[in-house]
Design a protein that fits this description.
With about 290 residues, the protein is of the alpha/beta class. The chain is built from eleven helices and eight strands. It has one domain: 3-Layer(aba) Sandwich (Rossmann fold). The radius of gyration is 18 Å and the shape is globular.
């Protein structure tokens, strides 16, 4: 397991899976260890995944200063990671809340990005968020599921701030509530640093106007990948996110929710691999 040291002395770890050109991967959660990403639906057959455990998660050390869990404070962790891997520029994939960090990184270091993939992204860095209405509209698409009558009222109450998070509505985050999805959800609590997650979106983390201006000049192609049954982001919000980038495009996977590589692995890896392959002629130096 390779490691490197952040500017404040925190030891950070990442995991290498697969073969081929490196693909840097940022997890979501926020602040969930990268283990939940697995092999991203078999993407390891096409690329060597480098999956970062953000500070205080997985095999990475907790920082001395918990304030450094704030999203913008970790941008330079990503830059040091890139340099440590020996990449002049990199393909970067980020999931969910990790997309906010990826956007801040791309805004600050635009020439270090070759291709950017944002999977079911949280676009808070752009001043946009999924609304309760978005999430409930997506949830109602599942009305024929046997678990819906119990899950929907609990989900609605949670979104209204009237109750705590309840495992009964976890199926809404998956396009298929099968054994794979259940196992994936069961592991979440042990993989997430809840204190860090509460600090990730803290006040001051984002300056949306400045970020939008910076990303409007990003030279790299960007793929925003959404699930047709996901409410956070909804396909409409994903498309608005893609419009931020001069070379942005949006793909919506039918029947998928927040973890599309679990819902239809073949469809997911085929699309992502094809997008990344479009830049194969401009390959960065190999990781060390």
């Amino acid at each position: 397991m390779p490691t490197f040291t952040a500017a404040d002395g925190t030891r950070l770890s990442y995991h290498l899976r697969g073969t081929g050109e490196p693909l840097a991967v940022l997890p979501g959660g926020p602040m969930r260890a990268s283990a939940y990403l697995g092999d991203l639906g078999g993407l390891t057959a096409h690329r060597r995944l480098a999956l970062l455990d953000l500070r205080g998660t997985g095999d990475s050390e907790a920082p001395a200063d918990p304030a450094t869990y704030r999203c913008d404070r970790m941008v330079e962790d990503v830059e040091l990671w890139r340099a440590h891997m020996g990449l002049q520029h990199m393909d970067l994939l980020a999931h969910s809340a990790g997309a906010a960090l990826a956007m801040l990184y791309a805004a600050r270091h635009p020439r270090r990005i070759r291709r950017l993939v944002l999977i079911t992204p949280n676009p808070s860095a752009l001043g946009m968020r999924a609304t309760p209405e978005d999430r409930l509209a997506a949830a109602r698409l599942r009305a024929d599921e046997p678990w819906f009558p119990r899950a929907y009222p609990a989900f609605r109450a949670w979104l209204a701030g009237e109750s705590e998070f309840d495992e009964v509505f976890l199926p809404f985050f998956h396009g298929r509530w099968d054994d794979t999805a259940r196992a994936h959800s069961d592991a979440e609590l042990d993989q997430t640093n809840e204190e860090a997650g509460e600090r990730y979106f803290a006040d001051g983390a984002f300056t949306p106007d400045a970020t939008r201006i910076a990303l409007a000049a990003l030279p790299a192609p960007v793929l925003v990948y959404a699930g047709g049954c996901d409410g956070g982001p909804s396909p409409a919000l994903a498309r608005r996110t893609a419009e931020t980038f001069p070379h942005g495009e949006c793909t919506v996977q039918p029947g998928a929710a927040h973890y599309p590589w679990l819902d239809d692995p073949e469809r997911f890896r085929t699309r992502i691999a094809a997008f990344l392959a479009e830049g194969a002629d401009d390959a960065p130096p190999p990781a060390t």
